[in-house]
Amino acid sequence: MKIKSFLELVALVLIWSGSWIAIKWGLTEIPPYSLAFFRFFIACPVIIAITYYLEGKNSLKINKKEIIPFSMLGLLGVTLVQGIQVYALNFTSAINSSILINFNVPFIAILALIFLREPLSKKTAFGIFVSFIGAIVIVINGSISGFQKINIGDILIVFTAMFWSIYSIVGKKIMEEKTPLSMTSFTFLFGTIFLFPIAFFESRFSFIRNITKLGIGSILYLSLLCSVFAYICWNRSMKCEKASNVAMFLYFVPVVTAIFAWLLLGEVITVFTIIGGALVILGVYFAER
């Protein structure tokens, strides 16, 4: 692997790991859907400008037939995934969220089998099963009685992984006609439009009067670093390196998130979090083989 790609992927892991911390901090001042809205309200024009600069105005053209598919992508990939994800962090930890979001990999494998007729190997099926067991260990925190007090935040994070999987399958088909940057631009645009009424009626943006540097910093971190810079790093690495080598770096995100959450948020890392997290990551590894 080239040194440049390695450094970009290390930066990506640090940025995406920090996103859970930034959301937690942002939620101390900003309602969840408003935080999600302003994240993409800022990121959207930036990614559109980058797309225009790198690919020209033709990449940003859209016809009537594409409005519904891109609306679906925006609704799934931004409005539902990001909106619910931020809301879920009101109830669960950054550590649990960073682990459970990896459920998108086995979900994608299952949906690809159903809708794209992509074969499901024995290793993939085994990986899905192992991840499922790991998720249960995390959600109930190692106690059978935990089923009686399941954290709604953990369940919502698993749902966002499912929505992201649907987004990925739909997006795979659309990318046959559009570039990744173009698709992301329209996804951000429609997703931001759908988030606006939810965010407005949630708070009417009254929090703006009392927002501090912490809230502003959280929004800028999530929009410019997590939604724009990290995405560009990911695409550059995917273009220059083997996809499997690049994907391996994602396994470090929950580990780094756990360290950040322990240091900056005071979250507790239990033995069941470690065991469950290891099972989820191991399952994801097998599912990708």
Describe the protein's architecture and organization:
By secondary structure, the chain is an all-alpha fold. The protein has helices spanning 3-26, 32-55, 64-88, 94-100, 104-115, 122-140, 152-174, 180-203, 213-240, 243-248, 252-265, 271-288. The radius of gyration is 19 Å and the shape is globular. The chain crosses the membrane at residues 7-27, 33-55, 67-88, 94-116, 125-144, 150-169, 181-201, 213-234, 246-263, 269-287.
Question: What attributes characterize this protein structure?
Answer:
289 residues; mainly alpha; EamA_dom; cell membrane
Please outline the helices and strands.
Elements: H1 3-26, H2 32-55, H3 64-88, H4 94-100, H5 104-115, H6 122-140, H7 152-174, H8 180-203, H9 213-240, H10 243-248, H11 252-265, H12 271-288
Distance between the termini: 19 Å
Choose one word for the global shape.
globular
Oligomer: single chain
What is the C-alpha radius of gyration, as a whole number of Å? 19 Å
Q: pLDDT below 50 for ≥5 consecutive residues: which ranges?
A: none
Helix amount, in percent?
over 70%
* Total of DSSP H or I helical runs spanning 4+ residues: 12
Main sheet overview: none
Structural class: mainly alpha
Percent of residues in beta strands? under 5%
Number of domains: 1
Q: How do the SSEs run, as a string of H and E? A: HHHHHHHHHHHH
Q: How many beta-strand runs? A: 0
Mean pLDDT: 83
Question: What's this, in brief?
Answer:
The protein is an all-alpha fold. The chain has twelve helices and no strands. Keywords: Cell membrane, Membrane, Transmembrane, Transmembrane helix.
